[in-house]
Amino acid sequence: MSPLTNEDKRFLLRLARSSVEASVRGETMAVPAAVSPALQEPAGAFVTLHWKTQLRGCVGSVLASRPLYQTVIEMAAAAALRDPRFEPVSALELADLEVEISVLSPMSPVRPEEIRVGTQGLMVSQAGHRGLLLPQVAADHHWDHHRFLEETCRKAGLPPDAWRRGAKVETFTAEVFAEHSLEKNT
């Protein structure tokens, strides 16, 4: 998928926010009739919600099985209501939510020494377990590639050294943008 324009990013952020607000209020969201061709291309994406700088929900799909704009709508609602780590977002929290979207590239196998921390995300899978961490997670925590691998294994419910013992390690890049970062670039 080619890089998104700032207009496409703003459109996706508005869609995500509308989806969060509608789902929290139990309303049906109106899906826009006109969507740019770039947003109609299939792509995986994650929607992350922060409330007063704290993680409040993050749900995504690695599969590029439906148009990007539809993935964002679905993942935004899921981040607000179905992230098992958190209670559903309440209507009182909506004004203080910050929406961030990560549009994923396709997955590709990687050797541990080739991992570029801060640029690539990781997915580790083995025996029906799978864990994924977005590129910004390792950068935010100042992890090296070994720690990034260990934490991704833990996220999968695997021992931290599973990456050394046959777990499948894949990498991806993500185009990451948030409401506050696009406001600064307007």
Q: Could you describe the 3D structure shown?
A:
With 186 residues, the protein is α+β, with helices and mostly antiparallel strands. It has 2 domains: 6-104, Glycoprotein, Type 4 Pilin; 108-174, Dna Ligase, domain 1 (2-Layer Sandwich). 33% of the residues lie in helices and 26% in strands. The chain contains 6 helices and 7 strands. Strands 1, 2, 3, 4, 5, 6 and 7 form a 7-stranded antiparallel beta sheet that branches. A hairpin with a 2-residue loop joins strand 5 and strand 6. The longest helix is centred in the first third of the chain and has 20 residues, at 6-25. The two termini are 23 Å apart. The model has no long low-confidence stretch (mean pLDDT 94).
- What is the H/E string? HHEEHEEEEHHEH
- Provide mean pLDDT, rounded: 94
The parts where pLDDT drops under 50 for at least 5 residues are: none
Considering the protein shown, what is the CATH homologous superfamily of the largest domain? Answer: Hypothetical protein ph0010, domain 1
Molecular shape: globular
Terminal Cα separation, in Å? Answer: 23 Å
For the record, what CATH class of the largest domain applies?
Answer: Alpha Beta
Number of helices in the DSSP assignment: 6
Give the C-alpha Rg.
17 Å
What fraction strand? 25-35%
Counting DSSP E segments of at least 2 residues, the number of strands comes to 7
CATH A-level architecture of the largest domain: 2-Layer Sandwich
Pairing-aware structural class of the strands and helices? alpha+beta
> How many separate domains make up the residues?
2
Per the CATH scheme, the topology name of the largest domain is Glycoprotein, Type 4 Pilin
Percent helix among the residues?
Answer: 25-40%
Largest sheet: 7 strands, antiparallel
